[in-house]
Write a structure and sequence with these properties.
The chain has 121 residues and is of the alpha+beta class. Helix content is 20%, strand content 47%. It is built from 2 helices and 6 strands; from the N terminus they run E-E-H-E-E-E-E-H. It has a 6-stranded antiparallel beta sheet with strand order 1-2-6-5-4-3, covered by helices on one side. The longest helix is centred in the C-terminal third of the chain and has 13 residues.
Length: 121
């Protein structure tokens, strides 16, 4: 139920961009208030989480909650980059993940891709 509604992936399923325009109502001015809930939720699910970034940033005049972290998986670790904003009064989640071993190759590409998102309302 928490999976993105749209996913772009490579053939092996190791490089993933996901997008989910949820049904969760959120006023634009309340976006920074959801940051602690996300941090708490991920820290609870993944006690060994390694945080790189957790904050609110502005891209093209729009606020985004930005989370960057590594989580454990069964036989590897996963690098995650998540951008959350408001679109039409609902939460829009934009994510990237890959194997930790692919982070060096993909981190800049993922950030450039997610930073290029333009929200038109």
């Amino acid at each position: 139920s928490n999976r993105p509604t749209l996913v772009y992936t490579n053939e092996n399923g190791t490089i993933n961009f996901g997008f989910n325009h949820t049904n969760n109502d959120i006023p634009k001015d309340k976006l920074p208030e959801i940051l602690p809930a996300f941090v708490k939720q991920f820290s609870s699910i993944y006690p060994q989480i390694e945080w790189f970034k957790k904050g609110v940033e502005k891209f093209k005049g729009k606020d985004f909650v930005v989370l960057e972290f590594i989580t454990p998986a069964i036989d590897s670790k996963i690098y995650n980059l998540m951008y959350v904003t408001v679109l039409e009064g609902k939460m829009l989640m934009c994510t990237f993940n890959c194997l930790e071993s692919q982070k060096e190759e993909w981190e800049i590409k993922a950030k450039e891709s997610l930073n290029s998102i333009v929200i038109k309302e």
